Amino acid sequence: MRIANLDGRLTLLTKDGTAALDVATASRGRFGPSPAAGYGSWQSFVEWARDADLSAAAPYDQDGLGPVSPLPRQVFAVGLNYVDHTAEAGFVQPEQPMIFTKFPSCLYGPRGDVVLPGAAVDWEVELVVVIGTRAERVAARDAWSHVAGLTVGQDLSERALQLRGAPPQFSLAKSYPRFGPIGPYLTTLDDAGDPADLTLTCTLNGEVVQRGNTRDMVFDVPDLVAYLSAVCPLYPGDLIFTGTPPGVGMGRNPPRYLAPGDILESTIDTLGGMRHTCV
């Protein structure tokens, strides 16, 4: 299944993603119009959605797509989760997940403009996990049963602020408005393919700047869910940005950062793609 936030309403998309069905209308009010409503009753929503009649789905404007989980309680992110990215960033590979947060106010949809607050904004394409049912002290072997699905994300980062001081401080520099775009839709696990073998690609003005695969993660999704839920309960709709492969601008010689007019595109196998213009 593909589930979207279309014009602020919970929506089902056809398998090819070209047509949309409004959930509140189709369910005759059983599920509310808020995109957060589905996560609040995930199991019953999924059961209904699997049998929903999509014959009334209609074409839609992709510019109306918003973040697939617009009101998470928590947004976790994982730093240095690909060995080659750790090396290009000049850090030592952590022995346990390196966790920081992106504040929910940074979330944004899969299309539109991103305002650059300075001259050192970097790109980081990432696989994003969306939690479906509460997870607390969950074993890795049970982690997938708590996941609603997967989506594409960009962990945009203002490096000057991030690396100011010692030690560096990550969360604030990664939480400017629109610095957490996710989308274009949530793909449930039955349609996502193998989460341990997904190719992530980021292009800048048509040039491939990142290409990696989730098989190269140091800590995979079950590891991350288990690690986080041992400390913090994970709630329906919560997000986990799982880390970025190599190819970021900071790791280049000389460094390369986003500039006004740049077109940033982020895609992951089976999960779709996003397109943003820097202004």
TrEMBL record:
Gene3D superfamilies: Fumarylacetoacetase-like, C-terminal domain. The keyword Metal-binding applies. Keywords: Hydrolase, Metal-binding. It comes from the Bacteria. GO terms for molecular function: hydrolase activity. Residues 75-277 form the Fumarylacetoacetase-like C-terminal domain. The keyword Metal-binding applies. InterPro entries: FAH, Fumarylacetoacetase-like_C, Fumarylacetoacetase_C_sf. It holds the Pfam family FAA_hydrolase. Belongs to the FAH family. This is Fumarylacetoacetate hydrolase family protein. It comes from Phytohabitans maris.
